Amino acid sequence: MNFENTQNRFRLLSGLSETECEQWNSVMSEAAEYVKSIVVKKKLTESDMDRLGNLAGVLAYCKYMIYSIESGSGFRAGELTVNADNATAKNANAIWQNELKLNCDLVSENAVIFKRVRP
After folding, report:
1. Less packed terminus of the chain by CB within 10 Å, N or C?
2. How many CA atoms lie within 13 A of 116 on its CB side?
3. What are phi and psi of 40, to 5 degrees?
């Protein structure tokens, strides 16, 4: 897997500088390990390795989104309650699910679903 692709994709999605991204290297490494664990294709090409690196970057970004949620943010308008925690978690899951579909020839489709757990 191309870890440089992981870092570049994470940086692109997060909008963080290279220096700011360094504090998220462990999350990117965890994402890369997880993506490696769900690979189903036996013989990977160089292009496949690049795609897997990108996929790990997306997963790291989704984790970054979940970890960055500020508790209690959101608003209420009459009967409708919009909770930023739920919206962010749903967006992260949608991004991840879309990337899984794009890479379904390489990885298992029965991968992680993001949920926010409150203490």
Report:
1. C
2. 21
3. -115, -20
